[in-house]
Each structure stands twice: as structure tokens, then as C-alpha cells.
Amino acid sequence: MEDIFKPHSLTIKSLFGNPEALYQIPRYQRPYSWGDEQLEKLWDDLREAQQFEANYFLGSVITAKPEEASNYLDIVDGQQRLTTLLIMLCVFRDLYPQINQAILDTDPFAIDFNIVKSSIRYNDRFERLRLKTHSNHESDFQQLVLNEGASIKNKRPFKKHLKIEEAPTYKFINTSAFFTEKLEELGVGEAGLFINYLFNKVKIIRIDCQSVSFAIKLFQVLNDRGLDLSNSDLIKSFLIGRIHKLYDQNPELKKQKEDQFMDDWKYCENIAIDTEVTINDLFVLYEYYLLGKNPEKSLYEELVTLFANKEPGDVIADFKKFIQRYKDEIYVKEDPLIYSLWYIKWSMYWKTIVLTALHTEYPEYSEFLKVFRRYYYINWIAGNTLSKIKQTSFNIIKWLKESQTLSFIRRELETSLKDISNNTINRAISNLDTDIYHEAWCKPLLFMIEYNQQDSPKYYAMWDKNIHVEHIIPQAYSKRKEWRHIEALEEVNEMDVWINSGANLTLLSGSKNIAASNDGLNKKIVAYDGRGNHKKDDDKISSFNITQNIVNDYKSNKFNKEWSKDAINNRWEWFCDEVETILEIDLSEIKNNSLG
After folding, report:
1. With helix as H, strand as E and coil as C, how does 95-164 read?
2. Three-state SS for 461?
3. pLDDT digits (tens, 9 = 90+) for 471-494
4. Which pLDDT value is given to residue 513?
5. CB 207 within 8 A of CB 62
6. Is 383 in contact with 438 (CB distance < 8 Å)?
């Protein structure tokens, strides 16, 4: 049985000189990108090693057999180093064709022109390194570097050109000009000693894998740094490969299809940038949508199976439309329903479900969002984990794609919530009746209540440190004389229950929270009242309506300007009414609970 991977310790001479040393940078790799910083480090490391180390380890290279039949190996990791080393060899070839001529008869390990030339092109017919990232990249590399005499003609490009990520041409030019300068400084004699050391004493571990997918998994295990390659890179390569297979007999149409594909791909990458998410994660959302079930294989393997018989142009066009909806209808959408979904931790699932409703143009979309949000929030408040809602989430995707009616979806979700074994609704009701201050869903729930008070609410971010959940009666009330009237309630041992409940919590901005502190109600009201506070420090602070309600009651003398038992009971009933409206849940069982 053939090994799934096999490591080889190779000198640079063997790496580029052995008969099987034919490499290609596949389509799923990003273009060559090294600049002066990386080149200087490589050069300095090699020169220092030449002086002080008998042998030098330059790292590892991971290869894989390409999907198509080929004598070339795909470079999964190490493409930047290999490309850079090959450019250096081309400069050696062009700058010093008489390299080491004076010592060839006395040093059997001296590297001459023929060895260098063979390291660049095998049997003078096959390039040792082919760049398949784009057809233009391969031809540019050939003309600017690989062709004899070409590498030393290159002059340093302008810095503005080196910043263009999609144009490795300027990087090829810059790297060859860099090594031309360095090797000219050494002179032919010292350069001869350097290439002898480079070829004979510098080693690389080449790990040959039987498949690209395993090579990437191996890369992830061996490296702590972020993976340069992703499933999306492999998906791009697969789809471009499909274009070449489908239109190979028509070069003009093939180029047209590939150019259109790359334009659409770049557009998708820009959406990923605009929405602050990786294109890989966008493909995960698309995978969940297409499958409508829990994936059984890797993202790449699942999508390759789904795309196998589809026209690549149609695939990228549909994906582009799918993620454009994500940007327009989720990421930048100003809608309180969408706002409230952003707080839910099961983001890949809720986003896929909403996108499925959008992409299938579900006719009852707006009402569906309310039903769906209710299901997720009640599960969250009940304390359920992802495992409890995952299968139902995939069922929702399937129902939307099947155009099931809203009444059907509502009935199925209600059945799930009332399932006796899970008892989700009852547990959610019970959790709403206790200490909610320390729950992750407390702040989002207060935000939703706030959104319900406004006609055109703005989005409040959970991570906004300027917004706090405020205790109306402070947690340290017993240490403040302004709250001594609460001690009467303490005699029945009920304040500990109510202090962190929905009856005693509201929202407050950062500077106002500091101002309110543990003060009595009369001073808190000044901080709460956004409309009446014109201090310079608070000019940019917006007031929350759910907090302003307390101010209004105070000013109207509704509870004798005290946060009394009646005020707390009234706030509790109001809180329950709001939650009932938002989540369509019957809280009469706990709403009737009162203080004292």
C-alpha cells in the first residue's frame, strides 16, 4: 500500500536536479508575492549560514499529486521560497555563465553552468517550475525570468507597482533585480563559493502527499501560522479546471469563460472584504444552503461533488448572487429583526437560513423572520446548545427550498419547542423569571425591547463597551442611605430575587452609567434623562427609550418619585408584556408574580 505521505531530506541540488523534481504552482495558490523584506531575510540567513554552519535547514515544502494526470507535483506549501530560489538560479545562470570554471578540475562538488541550467530546465525541454496560478503569470515568468539572458535585464520597478497584489510580474522583476545586485556585489569567485554551499549544504524537507486535501490537512498540523491556502482556493482551481476541460477545443471561448469567471471571483472576494468575512466562510454558508443537511465531508469535497456536472460560470454567478444578498439584506440592512439576529451565537446557521429565504425568494419572508427568530431566541433563553437546534436548522433550510408554507414551518417549530423531552418553552419561561443579568441573552433581549419602542432604531452592538445593562436599584443598595426604603422589602427576603431581574434592569450609555453609579433615584434620573441633559460630555450620547420611560414616570409623580414596590411590580409587568409581544410567548404564569 502506497504511503499517504513520504518525507524526503533533499539538498537544493537534489530538490531542483533530480529527475522527479518537476513542480507547478497550482491554480488554487495565490500569485507570487515576496518583496524586499522577505528577500533580504532569505539572503541574510543564507549568507550567515555559509559563514557559520556546515549545513543549513531551509524549512519544508509540501507537495501533492495534482488531480489531473501529470509528471509535475503541486506545491501546496513553499511556493514563495521555491519561486524565489529558482529566480536566484536564473540570475546565476545569466550573470555568471563561467561560474566555478577555475575549480571544476579540483572540486568534484563544484557547481557549474550546466548544473545550474539543468536545475532550471530538465533535459532542456521541461521547466522545473511552472506557474499555473494564471495563464498570464506563466508566460510572464517565462519571458522575464526563465528565458536565458532575461533575468539580469530587469530593473527595479516603482513601489506603487509592487503593491498591486494581482500583478506578480512586478515581483518577478523586483526579485531578479534584487539578486542581480547581490550577486554582482559578490563577484564571480565569491558567488561560486556561495552557490556551492547553496546546492550542497542547504537542505529542505520535501513531503510528498498522495492528495491535495491531505496535503492541506498536513500543512495545518505542521504550522501554527495561518494557512495560506483555503478550501475556497481549491474550489476556484477546480472550477477553472472545469472551464478548461469543457472548452479546451475552443481557445477563444475558453479564454472568454475564464476571464468572466475571474471577474466574478474577484467581485466575490470584494464582497468578502466589504462584509468583513472570509470567502471561505461565505462558501460554508453556500454549502449549507445547497446541501440542506449536515455536511459529511470537507467543504472542498462536498462542493466539488455538487459542482461536478455544473457549468462553472453558472456556479460562480449563483454564488455571487447569494453573497450579494448577504451584503445587502443582512450585513448592511437597517432592520430591527436583522439587528436582533446578529446577537445570536449560532451565526453560520441563522445566516444560512435567512439567506436561503432570500435566495429562494420565499413569499412570506418578513413573517418567516419573526417565526424563525422566536424559535432561536426561545432556545437560547432556555439554555439549549447548538446540538439541540442543528438538525432543525437544516430542516428549516430544506423546508424553505421546498416552498413549504409559513403555517407548516410555524407548526413544526412550535412542536419542537413544546416537545416534552426538551421542555424548551417552560425552561425559557422559568429562566426569564430569575436572575437574567448574568445571562448572555440579557443585553440582546433589552436591545430588542428597545427596538420595539422606536420607529427607526439604529443598531446597538453587543461589544459596544459604551452601553451597559444598568441596575435601577443598585446591587450595593444596602450601603447607600438613599435606598434605605428598600430594607423594608428585604425583610421578606425578596430583593435578592428581584435585583437582577427584568423588573430592575435597563440600558444606559457609558458616561451616563458612571454618572448614575449607586446614587439615589433623584440623581439617577438626571443621568437617565437624555433629553434634559445638555452637558458637553454627553452631547454624543443617545438616550434609550426603555430608560426614558422611568424618567417619564418620575416626572409625572406616578410612584411618588420613588422606585418603590409598586414601581418595581409595574416595571415587571411591562417587561413581561414586551417579551410576550416580541417572542409570542405566554408569560402570564410569571407576570402575576409580584414583589412583597
Report:
1. HCCCCCHHHCCCCCCCCCHHHHHHHHEECCCEECEEECCCHHHHHHHHHHHHCCCCHHHCCCCCHHHHCC
2. coil
3. 888 887 767 766 766 665 554 456
4. 60
5. yes
6. no
